[in-house]
Amino acid sequence: MSIKRSDLESKIPKETDSFEKDFFLTPVKESQHLQYIELLKNVLPYIISDEGKIVLAQVMIALKVEGIIGRDLSVKQRKMVNIISEAILTQPNKKQAALRFAKRLLK
């Protein structure tokens, strides 16, 4: 089953701006999306000076809100989180999108 980007965009809450629709880590369900935003807003002020930690937080919060990871991470889950974070950090366009998103949340 293939999910179209337009289908995903239609599920993002109306109050989000177009930048959030283009960000790749935000959960699709409205309740999860709002929870992701609130959690990230609470965490970012503590890690804003470290790009790696910003991306890591975004990945971990997205996976947690989606129910993919739990409170305690297994070795496989830690490996998965690190692989995803490194993939984002090594792709300049994805890294910049993640950092811009974080910066906007801090405003």
List keywords for this structure.
71% helix; 0% strand; disordered N terminus; 107 residues; mainly alpha
Proportion of residues in extended strands: under 5%
Number of domains: 1
Could you give the count of β-strands?
0
Q: Globular, elongated, flat, extended or rod-shaped: what is the shape?
A: globular
The end-to-end span amounts to: 38 Å
Q: Structural class, from helix and strand content?
A: mainly alpha
- How would you state the average pLDDT, rounded? 81
How much is the radius of gyration in Å? 14 Å
Q: How many helix segments?
A: 6
Question: How does this model look, in words?
Answer:
The chain is mostly helical and 107 residues long. It has one domain. Helix content is 71%, strand content 0%. It has 6 helices and no strands. The longest helix has 18 residues, at 30-47. Mean pLDDT is 81; it is low at 1-21.
Strands, helices and their partners?
Layout: H1 5-11, H2 18-22, H3 30-47, H4 51-65, H5 75-90, H6 92-106
Question: Could you provide a short overview of the structure?
Answer:
The chain is mainly α and 107 residues long. 71% of the residues lie in helices and 0% in strands. The N and C termini lie far apart (38 Å).
